[in-house]
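seq:
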Amino acid sequence: MPNEPPVAGSCFCGAVRFEIELPTLFCGHCHCSMCQRSNGAAFVTWVGLSVERFRLLDAAALVRHASSDHGTRSFCGRCGSPLFCESSRHPERIDVTLASLAGAIDRRPEAHTFYDCRADWLEANDTLPKLGGASGTERLY
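struct:
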């Protein structure tokens, strides 16, 4: 996808702005308990991309939180919007919340990860693969 314009993104209030370049590496719904608690939602849809394809344009209100021994989540300190997730397990990649992007990307969600940890009141009735287990990415059904 050469010559594709960057896709703009921001938090709810606009204090944190960024852009990404296509192509992305993946797009998927994560049902892990950390995503549920940090977003106040049943799951979060993440877009993974190479760190070279990510540019932070305005980070004055960006707050980073060490959410695990290997992960850091970033959000806006003004409006609280969850934005990014980074892990020392894959330092070449950054995950961005799909809902924070203002334009279309090159793919639709491809799977449900950590589906066995999903909220007990949610059943995803789509045809996407349901993954889970210790890694969160093993095929369940």
